[in-house]
Amino acid sequence: MRNLLVTGGAGFIGSNFVAYMLEKYADYHLIVYDKLTYAGRLENLDRVAAHPHYHFVRGDICDAALVRDTIRTFHIDTIVNFAAETHVDRSIFDPGAFIETDVRGTYVLLEAARDFKLERYHQISTDEVYGHIPAGQRSRETDPMLPRSPYAASKAGAEHLVYAYHITYGVPTTVTRGSNNIGPFQYPEKAVSLFATNAIDDQPLPIYGDGLQVRDYQYVLDHCEAIDVVLHRGHIGEVYNVGTEIETRNIDMAHKLLDILGKPYTLLQYVTDRAGHDRRYALDCSKLRALGWVSQHTFDAALEQTVRWYVDNPQWWRPLKSGEYLDYYRRQYIERL
Ligand code: NAD
Ligand code: TYD
To answer: Whose CA is nearest to atom 14 of ligand 2?
Structure first.
């Protein structure tokens, strides 16, 4: 492994992963391939822009010719696929974009991995493929995928293709299924980045339904480290869950976030629930721990660090809250707030 194509590397997790890998591996080359949708920002990569082992290609993962050309040009031996449409609420408005990028895009990358006989194809997947998990249970990698949102279904569809390409064509694949990530550079549409930036500006925090839904919020760099571990020590053809195994209710997350900022709970506003809202995700991460990975951040530490970053970096998120974002925000929240 030497030349990694990081698709979706200008997004939240991908950009953190690129910075992490460049710092850790002096001899690796990281080639970001990204369409720069609303969620992809070149400024997320400013801190690595001058690094001699970093390159950027603007492109769509559905563009097979450009994907192949990029693999040839940069002698790519490994693909790490972060590229995706990623927000559940947007998938409820517009499932088509999710099927196109998350499913068809994955197919295009797998075809390339197969033709070029790459050393590894790694798929970034999500705990959402398991669907809602009843209290007392935890998802293991062998459990069935029962996705319930268009986003989760697209990610599950992509994973089925990854498995099929491994079995049918022998493509050396690995998959990680991560829980909710929080940290720097998360587009302010996801719960924690939205709540932090709204609270800083004394704007309401929209709590869907009763706010008792359970998520496992992990720090983004823990997830990046897990991907690194699976790339280097994971077994070909295998899937690994990645999370803290700490369960947090959304309302408790919101209270803690307001406490960190010293803002009043009156900012909380209960709004109409998301259609098909999964009430609980909960992973069993023992398979990954057996490879030697441990999550470094508790939920409280992860939230504190994340909120502080948004306080310290308004120049990053404030300009995002305009144009396309405001259109989306109005569409998503106007009748709810
Ligand atoms: P993000 O929305 O911040 O970034 C997605 C990136 O993909 C953007 O840079 C975007 O420009 C790019 N992209 C979108 N469509 C593309 C296309 N057709 N071709 C090339 N690039 C394209 O997403 P994120 O939160 O960083 O998530 C990254 C990956 O991790 C996704 O696959 C997501 O499903 C998965 N994941 C996310 C979380 C989370 O909590 N955010 C948790 C588990 C798994
Ligand atoms: P989100 O960050 O969209 O991640 P996901 O739905 O993929 O887990 O949402 C996290 C949780 O927060 C989820 O239960 C939905 C809830 N939520 C709200 O209550 N209000 C909001 O405005 C958003 C965006 C999410």
So the answer is: 213
Q: Is the pLDDT of residue 175 over 90?
A: yes
Average pLDDT on 263-292 reads 98
What SS3 class is residue 175? strand
Output the CA 11–ligand 1 centroid distance in Å: 6
Same domain membership, residue 149 and residue 63: yes
- Would you please indicate which residues are annotated as catalytic (active-site) residues? 127-128, 151
The 3-state DSSP class for residue 150 equals helix
Q: What is the pLDDT of residue 334?
A: 87
Nearest to 187 by CA among 90, 57, 61: 90
Query: For residues 59 and 281, what is the distance between their CA atoms, to the nearest angstrom?
Result: 33
Do the domain assignments include residue 258?
yes
Q: Supply the range of the domain harboring residue 224.
A: 3-181+218-242
Beta carbon of 191 within 6 Å of any ligand 2 atom: yes
Rounded to the nearest whole angstrom, what is the distance from the C-alpha of residue 189 to the centroid of ligand 2? 9
Say whether both 151 and 202 belong to one domain: no
Helix axes 64-73, 106-115, angle to 10 degrees: 40
Q: How many CB atoms lie within 10 A of CB 188?
A: 19
Query: 106: domain CATH number?
Result: 3.40.50.720
pLDDT digit string (tens) for 129-147? 999 999 999 999 999 999 9
Ligand closest in space to the Cα of 337: 2
